[in-house]
Amino acid sequence: MAELQLRSVExxxxxxFKAVHGINLDVAxxxxxxxxxxSGCAKSTTLRMIAGLETITGGEIRxxxxxxxxxxxxxRGISMVFQNYALYPHMKVRSNLAFGLRLRRRPKDEIDxxxxxxxxxxxxGELLDRLPKQLSGGQAQRVAVGRALIKQPDVFxxxxxxxxxxxxxxxxxxxxxxxxxxRLKAEGRPATVVYVTHDQTEAMTMGDRIxxxxxxxxxxxxxxxxxxxxxxxxxxxGFIGMPEMNxxxxxxxxxxQPHLTFGDQTIAIKDGLAERLATPQGKIRIGIRxxxxxxxxxxxxxxxxxxxxxxxxxxxxxHIHLKVGSLPLVAVALTERLSAMPRRxxxxxxxxxxxxxxxxxxxTEENVSLADTGN
Length: 375
Description:
This protein is an alpha+beta fold. The chain has helices at about 45-50, 95-105, 110-120, 135-150, 165-185, 200-205, 225-230, 235-240, 275, and strands at about 5-10, 20-25, 30-35, 60-65, 65, 80, 155-160, 190-195, 210-215, 215-220, 245-255, 260, 265-270, 280-290, 295, 305-315, 315-325, 325-335, 345-350, 360.
């Protein structure tokens, strides 16, 4: 395995459209790095540039310390797993797995041994004599992973490999792939992985670190907990987390004790948030996750009064949509802690958990309530 480095990498298409804007990224040997972001953010384009399927128009890509800008895909030491599996339909699973080694003219006994090893690791030994059309989606994806694994590349590249599977299979394959990565590391064969997805659940559960992208730029690179607890900017804050973070317009007033105004309601800033602020008073973007808005008795100090617009019952929890003045907010409450199911028109009091409030600069959208964003 090898480390991967991107230095000021750019991609500009004909007509002057710039898809990737000078990104820098380091992926350590044996690390599982996830590229995540909305459709059109250039995460797949970035992956294809690493693979050599797209030419870069600026910067450097290094694999194992070697610049590979002008190296053809087959010589870069990478293996790629695609969204559509890309199995050869006329070949049985055994031949699909062995194809890359046959191209390299490896001895037959080596190919047979590697095929047996990989099929055992991925639990597809009973599928070796089937054609791709005889496989389920999950089985086909395991074969695709096996075909990449058998070549023992320097870097594994995954391009939204689970997006064609149903929810249950996606969950199962997430566990299989992450378990395989951990197992290889424990066996002294660490796999360097770059995994592209638009699904934040995949990103948060699979990645050692996550690179959040927007419009061809990197917004933040950090481990899952840091992204959730310490987002560097409003985009990361709103993209990571389900339901997404409440991001509303507000006003910061620095009196004897700082205050935040939500619409027509004001609360004092306590619990250490005031000491972390690095912004002047005035218009601000306030961020608070639905899980960090507590339903409290009326009249509780530091609470906001809101009118319920709808409530979604999800078994163990309820997602409550409210309006605080004209501002929409979502709160997540544990079902067992509510005396009754909220209904449209009900008035509830919500208290933000002070340490969990985030404040974002109105112009730059940078998080100004953190001393260190974890970048």
